[in-house]
Amino acid sequence: MSASLVRATVRAVSKRxxxxxxxxxxxxxxxxxxxxxLLKDKPEHVGVKVGVRTRGCNGLxxxxxxxxxxxDSDEEVVQDGVRVFIExxxxxxxxGTEMDYVEDKLSSEFVFNNPNIKGTCGCGESFNI
Length: 129
Fold this sequence. Notes:
Layout: E1 8-12, E2 25-27, H1 29-40, E3 47-54, E4 60-67, E5 75-79, E6 82-86, H2 88-94, E7 97-103, E8 108-114, E9 119-120, E10 127-128
Parallel strand pairs: 1-8, 2-7, 3-6
Antiparallel strand pairs: 3-4, 5-6, 7-8, 9-10
């Protein structure tokens, strides 16, 4: 099993309407650039894999890992030369979600702007659908 990449935050999107796309997940230019940067030092990996795990105070939490291959039931999203694989368990929870990468003075993290989320915990790491 691969090591986790970085911390990720989940945000419920209610005031902003995301445009439906054909891809299960869309990446912002910032997320694309960060994934390219992370993979540059790992030539044996072909992309990153997004999954969900049951944990946290609100139910589910996203995971990000480097991956060397596409799993049999993974959904593949290719955008601007970056490959993101979505585990089967996470596919329905990610429909219409935008993946962003945000840096500020105190932190840097991937942020999932998900219109399907009904609630998040106070720390922003877990959610429920």
